[in-house]
Design goal:
4-stranded antiparallel β-sheet; globular
């Protein structure tokens, strides 16, 4: 999510019609084909694809963080909705009473939510909050990711820093990362969407050296997802989605800025190559098929 949020809600009725999206080619290869458009959400900021086993069956769903208020207000209006992967609503009120929830991560059947100044830990099976862990001196926690050991990394966009959550304690892990936002651990590398850049840090490096992966996004980067072949998809809150090759090449996939339709913290299903985009003030989630 962008660090500063205008208090404007846009009229997007023309975009909300779920008509020929399923056959509409948004961009050429690598490119996107629109699949569905789920409406009537409450300022959705982040989408997280999740797979679990239920009664011996594989269950796939989408967690959607909903701010439902102002993005920097501790107002208790936020929550998590659950969608099915076809865009239908499974549980509109799966979890409520949060402040301004944004990025999410899952580790060992627990959902971790970046909620303004604290990380909220939720038992997925019961949808019950287990803990709320405050980050020291935090202002605007924005995204969270987990490594294979269960250590969590959390960005604070306004503090330009990244925190680390380990053994139920949060500490400052990395400073001076301008506009740090989207995070993802891949093969012990922490990837960071920050400003007009995609960066990475080797988690084994005691010096935490920051290496640029790609530079030149036209707007401030928000979410990022690994495609699985060394490439990434990166969203910019203002309404841009990019394909970033491992060699740093940037290809525009989607531009909805003229429509005033945001592209916030994206979700991704690796198996089906499906991209899920929360539209923030558009109060919807859109799904697209990635074509390579």
């Amino acid at each position: 999510m962008k660090g500063s949020i205008p208090l404007i809600f846009f009229a997007l009725s023309a975009l909300m019609t779920p008509v020929a999206f399923s056959e509409e080619i948004i961009s050429s290869e690598p490119g996107l084909t629109a699949l569905w458009h789920s409406k009537d959400l409450r300022v959705p900021e982040s989408v997280l694809w999740y797979q679990q086993q239920t009664n011996g069956n594989t269950d796939r769903l989408l967690f959607v963080s909903e701010i439902d208020g102002q993005g920097s207000a501790a107002d208790g209006m936020g929550g998590i909705a659950v969608l099915n992967t076809d865009g239908s609503v499974r549980n509109k009120d799966w979890l409520r009473g949060l402040n301004a929830p944004k990025g999410m991560a899952v580790f060992q059947n627990k959902l971790y939510i970046a909620d303004l100044t604290e990380v909220v830990v939720v038992d997925i099976a019961s949808a019950k909050i287990l803990q709320k862990i405050t980050a020291p001196d935090a202002v605007f926690l924005n995204d969270v990711t987990a490594d294979k050991q269960g250590r969590l990394y959390i960005s604070d966009t306004r503090k330009n820093r990244i925190y680390k959550l380990e053994q139920n304690e949060i500490s400052i892990w990395l400073e001076h990362v301008a506009a740090a936002n989207g995070l993802k651990v891949v093969d012990e590398q922490l990837y960071i969407a920050a400003g007009d850049k995609l960066l990475k840090v080797d988690l084994a490096d005691p010096n935490k050296a920051i290496t640029p992966v790609a530079v030149g996004f036209a707007e401030r980067a928000d979410g990022l997802e690994p495609v699985g072949n060394g490439d990434f998809i990166v969203s910019c809150w203002a309404g841009l989605v990019y394909y970033v090759s491992a060699d740093g090449k940037i290809t525009e996939l989607l531009d909805t800025r003229a429509l005033k339709l945001n592209t916030a913290d994206i979700g991704w299903d690796q198996a089906t190559k499906t991209l899920y985009i929360p539209t923030f003030f558009g109060n919807s989630v859109q799904a697209f098929q990635l074509k390579l």
